[in-house]
Amino acid sequence: MLTMEEAIVEPVRVHTLGSRRHFFSPYVQRCSLSSWIKDNIKKKTCCFYVEDASEGICKCGYPKVQHCDEAIKPEQYLGKEWSHHKHIREEPTDAYGDISFGGLGQKLGKYVRISSATPPEHLYQLMTEQWKLRLPNLLISVTGGAKNFGMKSQLKNKFRRGLIKVAQTTGAWILTGGTHAGVMKHVGMAVRDYTLSSSSMEGQIVVIGVVTWGIIHNRQKLISAEGCFPADYSLDEQGQGRLSCLDINHSHFLLVDDGTHGRYGAEIELRARLEKLISEQPLGNRESGVTIPVVCVVLEGGPGTLNTIYNSMLNNTPCVVLEGSGRMADVIAQVAGLPASKVTVVHIKQLMKRFFGQEYKRFSEVQFIEWTKKIQDIIRMPHLLTVFRIDEEKNSDVDVAILQALLKASRNEEGTGRQSWERQLELAVAWNRVDIAETEIFTEESQWTSSDLHPSMFSALVGDKPEFVRLLLENGVCVRQFLENEETLCELYANMPGCFFSRKLVKRVQDGRTRRGQASSTGSNKVSLIHVSEEVRHLLGSFTQPLYGSPRHKTTKDNVCLTVPSKAPVELPCYGDESTPDSVSDPGRDLFLWAVVQNNRELAEIGWEQCRDCIAAALAASKILRKLARETRDLDGEEAKEMRDHADHYEAQAMGVFSECHNSDPQRAQKLLIRMSPAWGRCTCLWLALEAQNKRFIAHSGVQSLLTQIWSGELSVDNPYWKVLVCMVFFPLIYTGFLSFRRDEDIQRAAERTEQQKLAMDSGHTNTKIKNNLRGSSQTSQLKPLNCGSRLMKFFHSPQVKFYWSIASYFGFLWLFAVVLMIDFQTFPSWRELLLYVWLGSLVCEEVRQLYHDFDGSGFRKKAKLYIKDVWNILDVLSIVLFIAGLVCRLESSDTLFYIGKVLLCIDFIIFCLRLMAIFTISRTLGPKIIIVRRMMTDLFFFMFLLSIWVVAYGVAKQGILIQNEDRLDWILRGAVYEPYLILFGNLPTDIDNTQFDMNSCSVNATDPLKPKCPILSDDNMPVFPVWLTVILLCVYLLFTNILLLNLLIAILSYTFQEVQDNTDTIWKFQRYELIKEYHSRPALPPPFILISHLVIFIKGVFVRSPALGHKYFRRELGKSEEEELLSWEAFMKDNYLSSTRQDENHSVEHRIQDTAEKVGEMSELLERDQKMVSTKMAKRLAKLEEQVTESTKALRWIMDALQSQGYKSKLEPPLLTSKSTDKDDGESSRQETEDEKSPHTYARQLQYPGSNFRRFPVPEEKVSWETNFTPYLPQVYNQQESENSSDASILDKYRNPGGRTGIRGKGALKSLGPNHKIHPILTRWRDSEQTALEFLAVYKDAEKCFCLPGGPAKANETLPQTLERILGKKLNERIKSELQAAEQIYKGYVDDSRNTDNAWLEATVLTLHFDNHSPVMSQINAIVESPSSSLQPFQWQEVSIKTCLCPYQREALRLIAQRHNTNF
Questions:
Q1: Rounded to whole angstroms, how far apart are CA atoms 683 and 857?
Q2: Which of 68, 459, 560, 835 has the fewest C-beta atoms under 10 angstroms from its C-beta?
Q3: CB 227 within 8 A of CB 82
Q4: How far is it, in rounded angstroms, from Cα 1286 to Cα 1306?
């Protein structure tokens, strides 16, 4: 199991080193594989050549030429007989690597030649570590006929489709014999069909063939001491003879070598050991105690298949038998519904004759007896046997039958308790089969609590199984309880699949350890919520507070997080001077955030549905994903695009819920926007949307309504603009009601609510509680109208009024600036110019205030970055810098600098005028146009680079052709750049044509600085340059620039206009926020009077140190009750939105078409199935009727022969007439066999005698009784401890087992012949006063190494009290001696035990004594149990349950005791 560090660090290591090792990684992997195989994998070879009956062939099966010289003449083996164990030795293997079968669509497989004695641990390590196979969630062992056989097309298709489906959905390994014949060929064809229909590499089916090396045809092509990469293997069925070819559709091969050639079955033992090892491996990454399940699928087969089924079921491996596949599978399927007493030797003979045909004649009587016994044992385990019948509707799919068989076996193994259901659920989660969980696990019988489902919830989340997560939530998982422990969330992040965020998280952990100077250790690499909080805060923005608290005060467990030092305090931005609250626990947010950071949309969707603050959660997810997309853009473009798409999806989710809220209650919806969310770092939804660049959300009418309300301040949003402008000039009008204030509207609405409340109070039908709420709200909602001073202050502090005054002030500034530049620019500054300087100083102070004013608590660094990114701020800084430069030059005494200063100020005036465009961004008409101009300027800027290439190219060429050695820089630039640029606007040059040459327009030697230099002249003062060349150059230049490039520019600008025009309104609404925020925080006085406000702010901040006023219009902290009410309403609106969304999807055309297609497909399948089912049932009934007629005829004939022979036996054997239908369900077989019909002993007839390698003689059910004639019965004698006369037949015959034959004679493992008496005194009590569980006193036995029932052998001449004292101990026996008279005997007699033989058996007496918990004796018993002095014979109270580890007869005794006390067992 991966540790937490490995689970996260590994993806980072792969990512950083992957590109560097990409070129030689295959070579490195091959070298690593070769080195590992040479060290761990061996083969087997014969080291002693002894010629067999065939000439030139050794007893090992290989010819003489394939033996080494040492094997042909071995000195140490001379005179000895050949032995497989002595003369087969192991050597390093010489066959491994990749195998290629050729052909279209065939993929490379893996193979290795291994010794039959190879430890299965090495093979499992080879497959998982060297071959890089993913750990299986299920192992499917397919067995059956090794030779080709036919199946009905319907059964064959269902088998192939079901096998692939179960392997694909569960991530299973399929284990087969690996050859291209029989059942292995059917599995290979199933894989081939899947491979041809699917091109996904991730969905490759793992099919492992375990083949005997000595029976492989063309195996020489696989041999290479250094490995074959690849080995070309061809399928040659015609030339294989007695050998077999490998199946070309298997993905991996284990070639088992036992040193022989041509002998089948060498792989059986190793395959069984490998299956057992895999079944012991833990399932998944968590230590839940659930191991990898194994299932055996049986098709056709012979006697060997019966042995495989028998051994598998003895190992508690469930088997699925496909009826209709032939031979042994059909024999078992026919008797699966019968009780064991009805499965007789005669019946088995008839079935074998029916399904085996001519092969039946080769079987002996003893074989029939053994097979009957095994089949009887098989059908006694119905929980492990599942028969797939194609005519049964409920088993319509093989994959469902396989998974149901595993669940049925698990259910019986664990009993019906909670552990059984939890194990089944773990299996269903591992297989990712929601359908199985819904039908088999989450039934009315099972009652689940949230804590019971937590392990499965963790597995489903880590395994990326959203359907299971949703199913678990629907069936009782509480997210709050699931994430109640912080360690669970840490484990989720530790087991997060490899993604960009996990790599960033690991880097942060490593960087933190490096900064602290700590050495790398296991504890220091753990991921804690502090690291997650820091990384999420980096993605959300520094304006948020940590989601999981401050690292300085956070204490966590050493096993899940890092120890973070507190040497330096963490600087956390906060809103104003508010204190940082503790982190808020929100499990829905934690689950949603965990899914979002790994870009898992389906899991995030489920987590979002669990969030209470869903709008903020969706906006935060959009912000996180956009940030991740920008950071991962250079690494993985596709992943970045997917992240952006998911960010847009979450923005749409936020818009959908907010639309529902706004349509229901606009005021509440606006409160959601400005409410500070404790779950998301005390940030508001409005600010999250702005940071995430969610333009569509900001453009929502509800958000714009809030911004308009903030823009108007305390003024009503319904006031026309002209009224506001009039009141700005004639402000006394605000006292006349000329302007409406929001307070007036609130008072009017409050009055209307009061009237409604009075009506509700007067109504006799209104609930008393509602009346009380209305009365309380009416008392608290009384508002006072604004007085004169408040109206004046509210009016001038409105951002709208501030904006209008700023526009007027700015126009006044430009007018004053223009007057100074054109009229009043004197040597000594006039009063106008001095006023201009003061005015500019107020603008500078305002820019400084904007830079340092932390409006949203993002910090100075973030504020400075945002300030620089704004184009208008850049223009402001540039204009101020130019003005200061011009002012410095203007104040100098030099005339030159004075004029330069004026020029700079004139240029600066242009920039100030351009800055005027920012004012019009508030306009709905001009604002979008300014956005278009800005986008076009960007396009024009890049276009100039392309244009400059042609301008410079033509200008330099023309200048070089016309002018010889011009050294004046200004005329060089004029000729090379300026004149070619003017040509674009139609100013054609005249100096390139001789006909227009004028000697007076130029200077010959460039002596005249006002004239260009003349071109190269001839003796008659005429230009000598090639006119034809200059004209061609001009034509080409005009063609590309005036026609091509200018039209390209027009097309670019048109495209930009069209692209921006569609989203102009959205972009304008988004950018409108910045202007509103600027004027909301701006002082009321316009420049230059704003200096007064700046002075007041400076005095308050520096000297008085008064805190800044909170911005209640942009963020608001709600009370706890109001917060809960608002979130509940938001959750209700979210549910409405989700239901409407699902309803729209269900009514969409695509969904209707898909639904109709599915229904048509289901109907056609049902019709086809019913038709085939009817025909199959009819054929079955006709066949049964024909069989009954035949048997009746035989019976009549037998009766006639018996009568005619006058007492002599008939020549024909009496037929077996059975009316029992075999069409019943397998699950009913246990109910068909009643208690009276059960065999007197079953465990006593197990073929393998316990504790030895001795096998019993098979005793079928009908041959158990001694009165029944059983001629072939010849059991062997077995005595574990030899004693006198223990093997004497005459003595053995004196003792006969009362239960019947057992298949073995002698004492076996028992101490004496005849009955071996045992006494079991069982003390019981109730666990608690509620009698929730019945418990018994168990004693620890050193021989069994476990707790079991107290008991021991009853010795001769020993009284019962003496026996009990010996069994229970003297101390305990003294305490209960007085109560022994009340002991109840619940059983006495013969017991069915696996140690019984024909001549020795167990007889037990079971006594039970129940104690009351409050009795003095019970206290004394508990004191003895808990006393350290009882360590010599420790006791322990254990629950009376079917899961108690006891032998069968002891478990039966506990069942009788539980029945006596009327409690469940």
A1: 10
A2: 68
A3: no
A4: 6
* CB-based contacts of 923, cutoff 8 Å, min separation 6: none
Write the CB contacts of 22 (distance below 8 Å, at least 6 apart in sequence). Answer: none
Q: What is the pLDDT of residues 391-414, one digit of tens each?
A: 655 546 788 888 888 888 877 665
Query: Kindly report the CA angle at 1296 between 1294 and 1300, in degrees rounded to 5?
Result: 165
Which residues fall within 8 angstroms of residue 594, CB to CB, at 6 or more apart?
Answer: 461, 489, 492, 493, 496, 607
Tell me the sheet residues that pair with 558.
none
Lookup result for tokens 């080995």: 231
In the chain, the amino acid numbered 249 is N
1302: exposed, middle or buried (C-beta count within 10 Å: 0-12, 13-18, 19+)? buried
Please tell me the chain's helix, strand, coil percentages from 3-state DSSP, rounded to the nearest 5. Answer: 55, 10, 35
**Cβ proximity of 489 and 529 under 8 Å:** yes
Cβ contact 677:685 at 8 Å: yes
Give yes or no for a contact between 289 and 370, defined as CB atoms under 8 angstroms apart: no
Four-residue CA torsion sign, 969, 971, 975, 979: positive
Residue 300, phi then psi, degrees to nearest 5: 55, -130
Integer Cα distance of 857 and 1107 in angstroms:
13
List per-block mean pLDDT (blocks of 10 residues) for the chain, which spans 1465 residues: 35 36 62 88 85 79 78 63 78 89 73 91 91 89 86 84 85 90 89 72 79 89 85 83 88 90 86 90 72 90 89 88 89 87 88 88 89 90 87 67 82 60 79 82 78 86 88 88 87 84 82 58 65 86 77 37 34 36 73 90 90 90 90 75 90 91 89 88 88 88 88 85 85 81 77 74 53 45 72 85 89 91 86 89 85 64 71 84 88 83 89 81 74 82 86 87 83 86 82 74 81 80 79 86 86 83 77 81 86 83 60 76 89 89 78 78 71 67 80 77 65 49 40 46 87 88 88 88 70 87 89 88 84 82 71 73 71 70 83 90 89 76 66 71 77 86 78
Q: Does residue 185 contact residue 299 with C-beta atoms inside 8 Å?
A: no
Residue 942 burial (CB < 10 Å; 0-12/13-18/19+)?
Answer: exposed
Please state the pTM of the whole predicted model. Answer: 0.72
Residue type, 1427: S
- Edge-first strand listing for the sheet containing 385-388: 228-232, 96-100, 109-115, 252-257, 206-212, 173-176, 139-144, 294-299, 319-322, 385-388
